[in-house]
Write a structure and sequence with these properties.
Blueprint: H1 5-10, H2 12-46, H3 51-63, H4 66-77, H5 81-105, H6 109-117, H7 122-152, H8 165-174, H9 177-205, H10 207-214
Length: 215
């Protein structure tokens, strides 16, 4: 395959702009998914009977093809970024809700009892003990959700909101492989960089894990 490096150089600004749009469309849904999943996961952990129906609903959303969901929401939100971000938020729940529940479940009962014995109330124990211990599992799910979202955003170009998906579809229409390859490589790089940033965030939020590895 011949790559037109001159075209890439001339369109660096455009590709950068599309990459930033792509990131916004992909990562905001993950953030919204976390905001929803944290309280839902806490409630599921508090009342176990709530977990199966919550997981079923999130999995049903994930089973619906993205294009079909776009078509449903386009009737209400039009050809806007919301039409892409709402389905991606719903998709993220199928990964994030179980990870929040599993993360909270990983906190051993002796640790909870010790925190209670030290005078920690339920809210303080949750914020200062249980959630920090759950961080590695929650971020592991966030990494999966983020990479998946970055990949799925390109489909949004079918309704005019796809970031780098524009370059993939435009390159296909023009039979111009360089544009397709450039956009694909950038999507992969965005996924790798985002994953690396989340790993760094996990290490910053769990200094005891670094100390244990060092020792």
């Amino acid at each position: 395959m011949d790559i037109d490096w001159g075209w890439i150089g001339e369109h660096t600004d455009t590709l950068t702009e599309h990459a930033l749009i792509h990131l916004r469309l992909a990562l905001l849904p993950v953030l919204f998914g976390l905001i929803i999943s944290l309280p839902v996961g806490m409630l599921c952990r508090r009342w176990g009977w709530l977990y199966p129906p919550a997981l079923t609903v999130s999995n049903i959303f994930y089973a619906i093809p993205s294009l079909a969901l776009f078509m449903v929401f386009i009737q209400y939100t039009g050809l806007t970024a919301a039409t892409v971000m709402i389905p991606l938020t719903l998709y993220s729940l199928s990964v994030l809700v179980p990870n929040v529940v599993d993360g909270l479940a990983s906190v051993s009962e002796p640790v909870r009892q010790a925190a209670t014995a030290m005078g920690f109330g339920p809210l303080r124990r949750l914020l200062q003990v249980e959630l920090p211990i759950a961080v590695p599992i929650v971020i592991a799910g966030t990494r999966v959700a983020a990479v998946s979202s970055i990949s799925l955003v390109a489909v949004g170009q079918l309704i005019g909101q796809g970031g780098l998906g524009y370059d993939i579809i435009r390159g296909y229409q023009l039979q111009f492989q360089t544009q397709i390859l450039a956009a694909t490589v950038l999507i992969v790089l965005l996924a790798l960089v985002t994953d690396a940033i989340l790993v760094t965030v996990q290490r910053l939020l769990t200094p005891w894990a670094r100390a244990r590895m060092t020792s």
